[in-house]
Amino acid sequence: MAPPEANLEEKFSALRKGLLEFLVLKIIAARQVYAADILRELGGTEFTTQEGTLYPLLSKLRREQLVDYIWQESEAGPPRKYYQLTARGRDQLRETLDYWQKITATVKKLGETTP
Amino acid sequence: MNKVIAVNLNGNAYQLEEIGYDRLRAYLDSAAAGLAGNPDRDEILADIEQAIAEKFRAALGPHKTVVATRDVERVIAEMGPVAGGATAESAAGAAGPAAGSAAPGAGFTPGAAPGTNEAPRRLYLIHEGAMIGGVCNGIAVYFGIDVSIVRVVFALAALLYGSGILAYLLLMFIVPSATTPEQKAAAQGLPKTAQEFIHRAKAGYYQGMKTWGDRRARREWRRKFKAEMRGLGQQIKQDVHNATWNCRQNWGQWPASPAFPGAWVVLKALEILFVILLLLVLFHHGFWGWWTWHFGGMPWWLAIVILVLVFELIRLPFKAAAFWGPGYGRWHSPLESLLSLLFFAFLIWLLNRHVPAFHQFLSQIPDFLRYMADSIHTWWVRNVH
Lengths: 115, 385
Known about the structure:
The structure holds 2 protein chains of 2 kinds.
Chain A: H1 3-11, H2 13-30, E1 33-34, H3 35-42, H4 51-63, E2 67-72, E3 80-85, H5 87-109
Antiparallel strand pairs in A: 1-3, 2-3
Chain B: E1 4-9, E2 12-17, H1 18-34, H2 41-59, E3 66-67, H3 69-79, H4 96-101, H5 135-143, H6 147-159, H7 163-174, H8 181-188, H9 193-210, H10 215-251, H11 262-284, H12 290-294, H13 300-322, H14 328-331, H15 334-354, H16 356-383
Parallel strand pairs in B: 2-3
Antiparallel strand pairs in B: 1-2
């Protein structure tokens, strides 16, 4: 790993931490997924996550009634928890997406207008 | 050869190598500690166990039935540290391996001993393999020492105005018996998988009773119960398999080992003779006359020491002959046999003291032996000379 990139990773760890919840909601919004699907989608990106982090997060989202799960039989092994967004989760995701767009717009805009 | 331990991961039974088991236990303990205060702690732990179980299943094949330690270590590394307790809630959602290391104390330390989280140990009477009431057995299990040592301590205490007997009787009435599997597991203080199964089944049962009105919760409970039962079935099958295998390993070739089959009988005869001689020295302070006649001034305790030494010396070649072969030292050490002899002696002493018929029988032995010696002597004189 190149040193400058590692530096950035360190600097933005808090930012990624905060964004992870939002990204998990976004993944679940696309389709019904179970935990391993979420990890697979996050894997390889800057947001690579492990089970030890994801499971507490999912339980927290469920407690806040943003997501819900149903049990589904799997072709191999015991049934799995498949997650989906609740109405409240969808609202939250929409609000967050709007807010994120505002932030990126600000990031883009700042500095350009200065004379 | 490695010891294998069976574990139950959210209703899935797996066999792990001992070191791997310790690692996994430490990981799950640290996960439970990391989730302290989280209202969904049990559910998250169940999810994590399920995820580990799925990874283990992927690591096993048709010819690989035991999860190797390196597999356990790999899976634990993949899982990552678990943090999400009441205090760490806002920090939950750490992304990437770099962020994981930024949360000190919440992470999993490899090889950390789970000593603090061991199941509490309780004192019980254990009747399996007990000699009288299971008191010594229970104490031995409680302290994790050999039962013969406890028996000897009690025997010695009994010599002090019978205080050992009194203590034994008191404990027999005060200490409860370990009858249910749960109590037996608690007596050992080990996090037995069986104990976990029972605990979970019960917890699930109560949970099911509480939420019976809710249809979804009821279905959930039934699913969990089925998973547990499936795991228990696998567990029992595996235990039976392990037990037969161990039995074959340990005892399969045992009867073939004595190089000299008669040595076993001679040894037992010697042991009994030794006990009788010991008792005679103890309670009659001499062997029917000729001891005092030859060694009049010798203190009785010195006689016992000499007796033990002579006995060991005589026994040595027979012992070597009887137990020639590997594994002898494992289950029949000299100390162990001596301790069992002492216990035997204590029993005879008790009988001698409290059962008149036995006392009479014992006191007749010297006369009988003398009579035998006399008749052998006369036979010798008459026929050989």
